[in-house]
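Z., the sequence and structure:
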Amino acid sequence: IMTMRNDCDQSMYVEEVPTLHNDFLNTYTKSWYQKYNFVGAYYVNIGHDIPESEYTNWAVSKPIYEAYLELENELGSHSYTHPHDINLASVDLAFQFGTAIDVIKGNMSRTRVASAQPGATESLEVAKKMEQWHSDTYFS
């Protein structure tokens, strides 16, 4: 059995999504699924800086993410803006993880969304604070 966690860090860069994700999907994901019945988990960021082109255009991203899901892959949150240090205050953790999960669930019509930690390793204290957003699934 082979598993994969793909942190889609570029997913919040709206101009890069069509090329990066379509290339990966068509070059690797589809062929690996057909040849090996391979599936993985894809963790996306949403972005929160429109002037810097760091946001998700759901009209573009949703069909790509749906294609991953059609191949039995999982889609999860990698946070809202991919902070490099997640030793954050509770209100910031709520935005980065709770809000990101809600946005992905809403835009992708999902009832469950897993998460993967971005950035530096968190402390046990931060990991415990984050449990509230991952109680119905898992945190990688």
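The first strand starts at residue 5 and ends at 8. The helical segments are 17-36, 58-70, 90-108, 124-130.

Let me know what you think.
H.
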